[in-house]
Amino acid sequence: MAISPPTxxxxxxxxxxxxxxxxxxxxxxSQPGMAVVGLAANAPDALAAAxxxxxxxxxxxxxxxxxxxxxxxxxxxxxxxNARVLILTGVLDPDLHRRAVRMGAMGLVLKERxxxxxxxxxxxxxxxxxWLERSAGRQRAGADDVRRxxxxx
Length: 153
Prior knowledge:
With 153 residues, the chain is α/β, with parallel strands linked by helices. It has five helices and eight strands. The chain has a single domain, classed as Response regulator (Rossmann fold).
């Protein structure tokens, strides 16, 4: 009896820079156990792709051509309720990072980081762990303020 390979981590990339999205897709798909199921560059396309593809991980840029991804993060979470959101950003604003985590993001990686860091973050967030960059303000992006569903208080 043959053992089937594990199901790959299904990743939706949401970023308004086409070159970056394409490079991210190439990077992710070169990794064993990971597959990109869609690309989106704006809120309507992101919501449609999340609903259609049911990703495990949503790799989300905070700044989508002048629109904050936080403006539609609750809708995105509702469109793909089993997905975990991992923020990939060049924005160095610790307050914005804390807000993203409070709104449900499970992790945050700065775009300046090495590809290996992003791959580790995807794996950890997929496993249900929080991934926060020390260099994203060393304030742990407000992780102490995060309320998890079902938490008392």
